[in-house]
Write a structure and sequence with these properties.
Elements: E1 4-5, E2 9-10, H1 17-29, E3 31-34, E4 41-44, H2 52-59
Antiparallel strand pairs: 1-2, 3-4
Amino acid sequence: MNYYDDNYGHWDDMDDPDMKDFYHQTQRTNKRKKCEGCGNMVSIQPNYAYCNSCATKREHGIDF
């Protein structure tokens, strides 16, 4: 099974039950909102402003 979300991208170590629990908790607390980087509607944590893709670009110095 492939685990992906707009917060963290692709999830690794999903054989670990604690990681699966954290993934499912994250999915339950996500909110649908507009990413401030790309403008797409994404499912991210309430305190996040950027999806994983845009956050990675910002971390690498790419400006919008």
